[in-house]
Predict the 3D structure of the following.
Amino acid sequence: MQNLYLERPNLYIGFHGREKENGLNLVNCPKQVKTSSTNHEWLGEGFYVWENNQDRAWDWAKEHKPKPFKEPFVIGVVYTLGNCLDLTDSHFIDLLSEGFKSFNVDFEGHRLENKNGLHKLDCAVIEYLHKSFEESEDPVRFDSVRGAFYEGDVAYAGTDIRRKNHIQICLRNMNCIKGFFLPRC
């Protein structure tokens, strides 16, 4: 039976950190979206948004590595998730686990790791999963990927809650972006 509740049709608000000039260009020329295609992104290739977390977007923009931004800046993003590989949902986590098994068979002896803030293994497995679904007998294309991440120091002794916890969105289909805005201070 098809799960009728896998699509995410709602509008969301998120934040995107970048260089000020580039951020203002996005607000003024929203059709010129540049996506990230490095081989170490947590959620694969796409346009990254911090879900409803302006503070984390600012932190990231201010701490940008390897090269700090001259003028860190944050813009708001209104978006939908569409057909989302939602890694906060057990259905999709199971798909990812199965994808990893196939990835390991196809790329036996790979030496990819997640370390030093670079997520080469995660990126490769997620991109492999996308390709597998897109090239299947009944092709499926995910518009976005959503994941929860636990980072930073603990909020207090005895807890697993971290100071930099966040939900990250990777928008793969730029039609999911409905608009950009300058956030209120």
